[in-house]
Fold:
Amino acid sequence: MFKLLQRWCRLSIWVVVLMMMAGFDSHAASVIELDADRQYDYARHCYSTGDFFRSVQEFERFVYFFPEDGRVEQARYQIGMSYFNGNRFRDAIKAFEELIRTFENTDLSIRSYVMLGRCHELLHDPGQAVIVLQNLLALFENPIVRDEAHYRIGWIYLQTGDWEKARRHFDLISPAAADTYRLKRLSSELGKSSQIKQKNPHLAGVLSVIPGAGFAYCERYYDAITAFLLNAGLIFAAFEAFDDENYGLGGVISFVELGFYGGNIYGAVSSAHKYNQAQDRRFIETIKETAGITLGAVPGSRNVAISFNCRF
Structure:
């Protein structure tokens, strides 16, 4: 009986071992070998479907496992574009800067400079965007690259209301690219900057000596009436209090009135600045509608492949 039990145990052990080996073989057979083409295609698929977070992961996986593949530079650029399209501009900046350090004087490094400028613009840092594009001008003599950099810098200055610097950079674009960038129409619209209706903040403040007059000058008539009635009412109330020899109440009302009176002056000056900013924005939007173009290299050029689009 004991020997029979031993044989049964040995047989059971062998059965378990054989089952485990069969399971391992089955699992090993199901392992998918990582392939460069399929990995790259899957990363591109994620990008094309708008899954930018996964796109970053898959392109990074491609770069890690296939560092010698000829598509590594393109993969790094797509990582930056994935961050950019996912509105993660600071991460995009790091990705583009890494590409520029790793790959010098290539088409994609040129694109990365321009995209760095776009990232800084969208982070509301136009000064740094201009610095990046100025670096691009200093590094590359290719006229197509320089034309694009001048055009981009011109738009940055235009959108910040510096019409003269914008015009200066548009004028530096080569005549060969004038039609591509529609410079004639752009210059014509930009020439109308002197016609922008503006309000003088200092004059608005001076006029506010009469409560509400500064607001009326800035065409904020409802605020003008409100300021006039409020200040007039408080002045009248203070006068009545002093006339009744109620000096405490008159002092309190006078103190409150001084605050409203000062606010009336400050509000008028602020309104003049806001009016001017609104006029500038309206002017810029008009230029965008009438002279906006697709930002890119000259069609058909084989010198530099800058093919992305940038509508304003």
Remarks:
- Residues 37-193 form a domain with the Serine Threonine Protein Phosphatase 5, Tetratricopeptide repeat fold (CATH 1.25.40.10).
- The chain has two domains: 37-193, 201-290.
- Residues 24-30, 293-312 have pLDDT under 50 and may be disordered.
